[in-house]
Amino acid sequence: MHRAWPGHAGIRAASAAPPGTIASVTQRPIRRQAPSRAAQAPAASTPAPARRPTSPAPHEVRIIGGRLRRSRLPVLDAPGLRPTPDRVRETLFNWLGQDLSGWSVLDAYAGSGALGFEAASRGASTVVMLERDARLAASLRAVRERLKVGGVTVEAVDALTWMRNGAAASFSLVLLDPPFADDPRPALTLASRLLVPGGWLYLEAGAPITESDAAGLGLSLHRAARAGAVHYHLLRRADG
Known about the structure:
Elements: H1 8-15, H2 37-40, E1 59-62, E2 72-75, H3 86-96, E3 104-107, H4 114-121, E4 126-130, H5 134-147, E5 152-155, H6 159-165, E6 171-176, H7 185-192, E7 195-205, H8 211-215, E8 219-227, E9 230-237
Parallel strand pairs: 3-4, 3-6, 4-5, 6-7
Antiparallel strand pairs: 1-2, 7-9, 8-9
Helix pairs in contact: 6-7
């Protein structure tokens, strides 16, 4: 945009003087020109350049009970990853009791670790977390180091493979939260064999498990509830 500068007329008069002479600007007073309307008008706003989309910050959940209460757990962007909601976790540990001191726990589909770290927060002596996604497994190890949680082991392995080839019955509690698209029965069958007498098994699924389903695996259905699309169950080894 061209803009009229103050003193412009006087400078032009000086340049018109004959060569070899110096024109005195005092001979012709400089008249300050009022800015034109164009100069007074604000410049047209230039659209800001489009900002590149940035990756959203990882979501997070918090441990809701025990000595690690309020500790944050990152929830990475991974297909099918859906941490157990606070309300469901609170209900589960109300069913189990808040003190898990001395318990041995298997978190077979660890994901964010919300269930496994919740158990460790409440005193479980050992927690084995299984997670086949290497990136999620690395995140679980990082959380374990940050929170300085002893007794937590993270295995980057498929849950069904590990349980099929795993140790003998040695767990007080097995936590199962498989993808809803998967049939939960293979995981239930394998997990039921890893429980000590009287051990507990927690299952989240997209459909309810019946008493007869549980009995066929040597389990009894202790409690069950629903939160939205999530059906969650607490079962117990029948010989306990």
